[in-house]
Write a structure and sequence with these properties.
Blueprint: E1 2-7, H1 12-26, E2 30-38, H2 42-56, E3 60-67, H3 76-90, E4 94-98, H4 105-117, E5 128-132, E6 153-156, H5 161-169, H6 184-197, E7 203-211
Parallel strand pairs: 1-2, 1-4, 2-3, 4-5
Antiparallel strand pairs: 5-7, 6-7
Helix pairs in contact: 1-2, 1-5, 2-5, 3-4, 5-6
């Protein structure tokens, strides 16, 4: 299978899907990451991303280099076109997108653009779309029914948790000290919480957007 993860910013993919990426890769699947934005530190962040993805087993990483915090101001065809081009090239079987209710507006814009690219008419082979949570974004927005992350799909990452933490450690420019949510301790604690929901040591949680059986 081919799996694609859309990351609005460098490190979102590890925070939300790092364990699942490693799990899919170790099972022999091809995992691709599409990192959408870049800022002033793009050389550092992209080097960190490559190191993290090597640990997780990512087959290929795409950097779209669109302006961070400015996606809402782009012409819709520019964002949709950039994400659509990568999606059409990969033709994924499973896709992971950011939660549309996250605090950072880039997350919502990427989620919407990904959904355009993942329409059944464009990706007839697609079997599932899942939204992932991102620490310091998903839990910090204004609480409302539309913004709340209500997971209904879980991935047991008990065997992959150390790889996820090792990959996140590669993002030296982004990792913070506890109790910041983007600390290794917080990342592990969230995995423990999600794991306890399904009675395993560690898990990642997702919202099923569309599934084709």
């Amino acid at each position: 299978m081919k799996i694609i993860v859309y990351a609005p910013h460098n490190d979102d993919e590890v925070l939300g899907v790092g364990g699942a990426i490693a799990k899919y890769a170790q099972a022999g699947n091809d995992v691709y990451v599409c990192e959408v934005t870049s800022g002033k530190m793009y050389k550092t962040l992209q080097a960190e991303a490559r190191d993290a993805h090597k640990i997780l087993g990512v087959k290929e990483t795409f950097f779209l280099n669109l302006p961070v915090t400015e996606l809402r101001n782009l012409h819709i065809s520019e964002l949709n076109g950039a994400i659509g081009e990568i999606t059409n090239r990969i033709q994924p079987d499973i896709a992971f997108i950011p939660h549309k209710g996250d605090m950072h507006m880039d997350h919502g814009e990427v989620a919407k653009a990904a959904m355009v690219a993942l329409r059944p008419v464009s990706c007839p082979q697609l079997k599932a779309i899942y939204a992932y949570e991102t620490l310091s974004e998903t839990e910090w927005n204004i609480a409302s029914p539309d913004n709340t992350f209500n997971p209904n799909v879980y991935c047991d990452i008990s065997k992959e948790i150390e790889l996820k933490l090792e990959a996140m450690s590669c993002y030296k420019s982004q990792v913070k000290q506890y109790p910041h949510p983007r600390s290794l301790e917080s990342l592990k604690a969230l995995a423990m919480l999600r794991g306890s929901t399904i009675c395993v040591p560690y898990a990642e949680a997702f919202v099923s957007i569309r599934t084709v059986l």
